[in-house]
């Protein structure tokens, strides 16, 4: 029987009532959780700097202490590979995309049901990226004016890169992609790096946002070929 180790979660929000409610939601995760709370950006940055065993950070983008996105960007930089997920009342595309540009691993609007929140967090824990439906829906509106650009981008990807892009968009981690496509994990990393370069972005989150907005992920699907 496998044992799920305790997860350490940084929960940063300036509303104590919301933190209490979120702790109740987090109790629904598999295994034990240890929650470290912060009420503003200085708190969150101090915790992230001093405690090196954090597994995930849940952060309200609008908190006292620093300008919203500057604070978020600093926090993402300090935490490095630790996934940062924004949990915010803002659910508009511009704010979400600006947060994504900071390097976060997901964006959860506070209007979502608790069961959806848990599913989103499980996706992030598995190495995926969670994007709210409101942002994904915008790809339809953006598809027509960017159709030519999208086709050009797809044309510059190899068949295997198209496969990897489709799985990245579905939230697969590099390990999961390697298993699905029967590739070495190192090879998957190379393909992901190539994707970022072709799409002109800096991380997987931005790649998913851009690919969705251009309609790329609606046209590329994993194939059964096993060539590298």
Characterization of the model:
The chain is of the alpha/beta class and about 230 residues long. The chain folds into 2 domains: about 130 residues, Response regulator (Rossmann fold), CATH 3.40.50.2300; about 80 residues, Rossmann fold, CATH 3.40.50.2300. It is about 50% helix and about 10% strand. It is built from 12 helices and 5 strands. Strands 2-1-3-4-5 form a 5-stranded parallel β-sheet, with helices on both faces. α3 links the parallel β3 and β4. α10 packs across α11 and α11 packs across α12. The longest helix has 15 residues. The radius of gyration is 18 Å and the shape is globular. The two termini are about 35 Å apart.
Key structural traits:
Rossmann fold; alpha/beta; 2 domains; globular; 5 strands; 228 residues; single chain; disordered C terminus; 51% helix; five-stranded parallel beta sheet
Backbone structural class? alpha/beta
Major beta sheet summary: 5 strands, parallel
Low-confidence stretches: 143-155, 219-228
In N-to-C order, the SSE pattern is: EHEHEHEHEHHHHHHHH
Assign a percent range to the helix content: 40-55%
Q: What is the number of beta strands? A: 5
Rg over CA atoms, rounded to whole Å, is: 18 Å
- Sum up the overall morphology in one term: globular
User: What is the CATH fold-level name of the largest domain?
Assistant: Rossmann fold
Assembly type? single chain
Report strand order across the widest sheet: 2-1-3-4-5
Count up the helices. 12
Distance between the termini: 36 Å
What portion of the residues fall into strands of 2 or more residues?
Answer: 5-15%
The chain-level mean pLDDT equals 80
CATH hierarchy: architecture of the largest domain: 3-Layer(aba) Sandwich
């Amino acid at each position: 029987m496998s044992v799920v180790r305790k997860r350490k979660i940084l929960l940063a929000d300036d509303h104590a009532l919301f933190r209490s409610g979120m702790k109740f939601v987090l109790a629904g995760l598999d295994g034990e959780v240890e929650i470290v709370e912060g009420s503003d950006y200085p708190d969150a940055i101090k915790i992230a700097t001093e405690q090196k065993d954090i597994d995930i950070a849940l952060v309200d983008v609008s908190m006292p202490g620093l300008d919203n996105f500057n604070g978020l960007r600093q926090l993402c930089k300090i935490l490095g590979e630790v996934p940062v997920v924004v949990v915010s009342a803002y659910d508009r595309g511009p704010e979400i995309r600006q947060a994504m540009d900071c390097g976060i691993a997901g964006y959860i609007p506070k209007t979502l049901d608790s069961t959806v929140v848990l599913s989103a967090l499980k996706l992030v824990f598995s190495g995926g990226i969670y994007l709210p439906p409101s942002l994904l829906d915008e790809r339809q509106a953006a598809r027509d004016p960017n159709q030519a650009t999208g086709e050009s981008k797809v044309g510059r990807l190899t068949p295997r890169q198209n496969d990897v892009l489709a799985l990245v968009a579905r939230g697969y981690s590099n390990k999961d992609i390697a298993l699905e496509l029967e590739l070495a994990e190192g090879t998957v990393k190379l393909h992901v790096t190539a994707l970022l370069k072709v799409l002109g972005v800096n991380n997987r989150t931005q790649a998913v946002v851009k690919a969705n907005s251009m309609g790329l992920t609606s046209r590329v699907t994993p194939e059964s070929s096993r060539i590298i």
